[in-house]
Q: What sequence folds into this?
């Protein structure tokens, strides 16, 4: 099988590419390196079956060529990270929606399978816990740029499903919940690598808000496994799946666990949202996935213990800091 990955030099894309190569598949990736990095794929360059192109996922001729050359496309290219989303909403909306439109148009020509990476953000301000794939979506007001990402990814989902119904493009949608692990950068607000770097350097670990908001963190290798199993499951086509851990932890407790794993004496400091983000920023108290649909279809759900996830991230950040 030959797989085309948009955003393939990114955190998740690089792990997916590596796993595909290890099992004997061929991989073609596209990345504009705006949030991805050549460092993430340096160990793959030169390997048999691996090819990369530097370019944007909104380049119609380029994307059409690459989709046509592969059996499956995994669309990971997107504007990501809370800080980037809040600071650059125009970039967020245009990047996410336009790239998906271009990709689906290319896939429609020969009805190539597309796996679209969506996000838990689409559940917005929902309070029904855990979140199920058929739940109503509740987003905040348009005046708050915080919701631009959620809205753009929800539109991506609707667009993909519309292409499936009207143009018979086989599509699978995965809503990723706080996927973390080695190679993830804290540059755009990702909480776990930021905490790990702060703890290792002995700096204050900055927790935004009260710290009582909770999240579920899943290991990137579990997400990759779920994606690969979904690609191999014909019944997954036309469906939406939550992919992530359902082990819930408060952000303050996460900071404590990171501090312990790093053997650090860093102070944990609470920072009001008003100091961290633009006025009007909203956060969600809880975000927990219902993973029963995923498990029922593919017999698998992310289960890497949080302690192991944290240990992997701390080790990765320690190596990064040592290499500076």
A:
């Amino acid at each position: 099988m030959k797989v085309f990955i948009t955003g393939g030099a990114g955190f998740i894309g690089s792990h997916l590419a590596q796993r595909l190569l290890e099992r004997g598949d061929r991989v073609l990736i596209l990345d504009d390196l705006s949030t991805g990095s050549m460092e993430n794929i340096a160990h793959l360059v030169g390997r048999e079956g691996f090819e990369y192109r530097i370019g944007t996922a909104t380049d119609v001729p380029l994307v059409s060529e690459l989709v046509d050359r592969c059996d499956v496309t995994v669309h990971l290219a997107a504007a990501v990270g809370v800080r980037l989303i809040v600071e650059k909403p125009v970039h967020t909306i245009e990047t996410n929606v336009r790239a998906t439109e271009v990709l689906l148009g290319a896939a429609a020509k020969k009805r190539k399978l597309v796996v679209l990476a969506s996000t838990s953000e689409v559940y917005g301000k929902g309070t029904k816990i855990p979140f199920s794939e058929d739940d109503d979506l509740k987003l905040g007001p348009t005046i708050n740029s915080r919701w631009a990402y959620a809205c753009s990814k929800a539109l991506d989902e609707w667009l993909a499903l519309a292409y499936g119904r009207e143009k018979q493009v086989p599509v699978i949608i995965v809503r990723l919940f706080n996927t973390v692990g080695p190679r993830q950068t804290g540059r755009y607000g990702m909480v776990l690598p930021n905490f790990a770097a702060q703890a290792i350097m002995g700096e204050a670990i900055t927790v935004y808000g009260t710290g009582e908001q909770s999240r579920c963190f899943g290991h990137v290798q579990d997400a990759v496994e779920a994606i690969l199993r979904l690609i191999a499951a014909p019944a997954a086509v036309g469906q939406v799946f939550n992919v992530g851990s359902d082990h819930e932890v408060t952000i303050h407790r996460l900071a404590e666990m990171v501090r312990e794993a790093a053997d650090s004496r860093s102070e944990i400091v609470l920072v009001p949202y008003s100091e961290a983000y633009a006025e009007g920023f909203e956060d969600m108290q809880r975000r927990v996935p219902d993973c029963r649909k995923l498990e029922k279809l593919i017999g698998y759900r992310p289960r890497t213990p949080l302690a192991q996830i944290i240990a992997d991230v701390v080790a990765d950040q320690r190596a990064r800091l040592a290499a500076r």
User: Anything to note?
Assistant: Residues 190 and 210 are 17 Å apart (CA to CA).
